[in-house]
Amino acid sequence: MTTPRQLLLGLLTGVGLCFTPHASAEDSPTPVVPSDVKSAVGTTLVELLSVAEASSPTLRQFAIEIESTRGKARQAGLYPNPVASGGATQIAGPQSQYFAALSQEIVTRGKLQLSQAAVCREVAQAEFRYVQARFELLTAVRQGYFVSLAAQRRMEISNRLVEIAKKSRLAAKRAQQAGAGTLSDTLLLEIEFEKAEVTLENTETKWQASQQQLVATMGRRDFQLVRIHGDLTESLKRFESQVLIDGYVPYNAEVQSAEQDVERNRYLLQRAIVEPFPNVTIYGGYQYQVSPIQNMGLLNVFVPLPFWNKNEGNIASANAQVFKAQATVEQVQNQIAKHMADASGRFRVADQQVRRYSDRIVPKAQKAVDIIQDGFTLGELDFLRLLQTQRALVDSKLGYIDALETRWVAATELAGLTQIEAFP
User: Fold this and answer.
1) Entry pTM
2) pLDDT band at 25 (very low <50, low <70, confident <90, very high)
3) What are the distances in angstroms from CA 402 to CA 143, 342, 408?
4) Which of 271, 405, 295, 283 is nearest to 347 (CA)?
5) In angstroms, rounded to a whole number, what is the distance separating the alpha carbons of residues 80 and 263?
6) Contact at 8 Å (CB) between 227 and 241?
7) What is the spatial distance between Cα 7 and Cα 13, in angstroms, rounded to a whole number?
8) Measured over all CA atoms, what is the biggest interatomic distance in the chain, rounded to whole angstroms?
9) Are 390 and 383 in contact (CB under 8 A)?
10) Model confidence at 245, in pLDDT bands (50, 70, 90)?
């Protein structure tokens, strides 16, 4: 079976893979599945993609489809087998006659070559479908990775929120016991602590769910993810310069597959046009007669005459299919343009939010906490003000994580549409 690397190399270099040597299912090497990759810092995106490409049953299905279509292409070009016949034309004592003969159909006007060329376009389509499926897998794993990484960051922030609420509750109880606080303040902080714990529990649940979804997407439900390693704040400037171009419609595998369908239908149209031209069947053999003359030769030529059926209906249908395939190419391009516009819009909106959070909102929230903390230390401000500013800082960081996640999800979708190999 052709490996993914050989397939992609063939597509990129234009080498025809329609008639590569075939291997049986028994001879095909068993794919090497990477073992679980774990490190002290966590599993990286590159490692997850490597495992997914080796383990995905979807990619195996599309690879097998390529081999199946290649078999059809090989079969489409094979010449008809000769026909052997024999027997007796009559059994009548001395007048008995016995014969042996061979007949062969001669295929005219390149019918076999046209049929084979049409199926070879199906092979190319299957190859492009494999490429499309591969990038869909990469996109799904990339999105799952960033969603899980964002959930991991939220869990860290939620843990910090629980610590703040716990300290605040303890300080309120001490203040109440010392007569400097009230029961209402203590109850308020008790409520804040309970809300923080609920937020943490929800975040942990979502994080676990995102990990389970990710390993299922990879095709390795037994893969154990302990921690995701990555940086949500990594710059995407180079990526933006590649894909964020107004009106840009990538020439990806989906478009190329649709174009191959146009070529396939053109070959089928040519095949329908030459169908009325008859094939010639030649029949020759030897006949033996018991009485003289004993040795005789046989020769016949059969040619069907296309008087009533000139294949007009099939020609008209094949011609219509060419125009339909051409319209499909435009439809696919329009759909890709629509998806590009949608993903680009979501990316730009999220990117604006990321810049606003990183440049203004989070720094201001942090500065407010520092000011209130100094005032609280000097006894100039109450603890409730400190709690409010700390909660505002946490909320700002959570909003920042949400914006980063949305930006990365949109970016992975754009990378999948443009079929960028190296991302980010």
Assistant:
1) 0.84
2) very low
3) 14, 19, 10
4) 405
5) 26
6) no
7) 10
8) 139
9) no
10) confident
Tokens of 401: 């994580």
Its sign, for the CA torsion 120, 122, 124, 126, is: negative
pLDDT in tens, 157-187: 999 888 888 887 887 788 778 877 778 777 8
Residues of the chain above pLDDT 90, percent: 64
Output the pLDDT for position 20: 52
Taking only the tens place, the pLDDT of each residue in 260-277 is 999 999 999 999 999 999
Q: Decide if 45 contacts 230 (C-beta within 8 A).
A: yes
Contact predicate 132/11, CB 8 Å: no
In this structure, the dihedral spanned by the alpha carbons of residues 392, 396, 401 and 405, taken in order and rounded to 10 degrees, is: 130
What is the overall mean pLDDT for the chain?
87
Average pLDDT over residues 373-389: 71
Residue 374 has a pLDDT of 76
Which phi and psi angles does 307 have, rounded to 5°?
Answer: -80, -50
- Residue 224: pLDDT band (50, 70, 90) is confident
Q: What is the 3-state secondary structure (H, E, C) of the chain?
A: CCCHHHHHHHHHHCCCCCCCCCCCCCCCCCCCCCCCCCCCCCECHHHHHHHHHHHCHHHHHHHHHHHHHHHHHHHHCCCCCCEEEEEEEECCHHHCEEEEEEEEEECCCCHHHHHHHHHHHHHHHHHHHHHHHHHHHHHHHHHHHHHHHHHHHHHHHHHHHHHHHHHHHHHHHHHHHCCCCCHHHHHHHHHHHHHHHHHHHHHHHHHHHHHHHHHHHHCCCCCCCCCECCCCCCCCHHHHHHHCCCCCCCCCHHHHHHHHHHHHHHHHHHHHHHCCCCCEEEEEEEEEECCCCCEEEEEEEECCCCCCCCCHHHHHHHHHHHHHHHHHHHHHHHHHHHHHHHHHHHHHHHHHHHHHHHHHHHHHHHHHHHHHHHHHHCCCCCHHHHHHHHHHHHHHHHHHHHHHHHHHHHHHHHHHHHCCCCCC
Higher local confidence (pLDDT), 294 or 129: 129
Distance, in Å, from the CA atom of 198 to the CA atom of 201, rounded to the nearest integer, reads 5
Block residue for tokens 């676990």: 208
Query: Could you give the CA distance from residue 62 to residue 68 in angstroms, rounded to a whole number?
Result: 10
CA 234 to mean position of chain CA atoms? 24
